[in-house]
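User: Run a structure prediction on this.
Assistant: Running it now.
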Amino acid sequence: MKPALLIVFISLFLFNSQALSGTEPNKSKPAAFTIADFNNGAMSNNLQAEMGTWEMDPEDESQGIEASLDRNIKMGRSGYSLKLDYNVGSPKNAVNGFWMQLKFFDASPYDHFEFYVKGDRDKGCTNIFKIEFKKLRKDLDGEEETAKGSFIVKGVTGEWQKISVPLNVMNGITDWSRMGEFVITFEKRRVDSPKGTLYFDDFAF
């Protein structure tokens, strides 16, 4: 066989092998990107975007939430964690939580969202809460609407544990480019402890 024909034969063989195996050449999984590790000591994430708390009914003084950074309880030897002191023990159907802007981050190359969480053993905590992503998109009439994809986190304990959520289980979002916001929600009707403290660290795609 002539050298030129041999090269063509090898190229076709490699191409067909990749097609049959379902793999794509030179396509590797992107490195994890940490959205927030709180090590800058400020209430902003690694995208230099703002974060804070929200309440469905801020005039209801029997509920509330506070966010702060804690340097004593954290993942790793240095930095901080996010500390959320929440209270939905209101006679009303209280809902509150935490928000973090994502500055149109492109999460489309990733397939999971991960973070660490632990409850405060002394103050107690709920072992169930909701996380949610939001973004703007066009509806069928070309008008902007908010797309939401959510997931219920369960089984929180007094020890650090890693939560890994496949993006494809959050069915409200199919296009993970230009992400707008990440939200943690505590709902009176859902939590199993109406008041408590949770610590979070290393939010990452």
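The longest strand covers residues 95-105.
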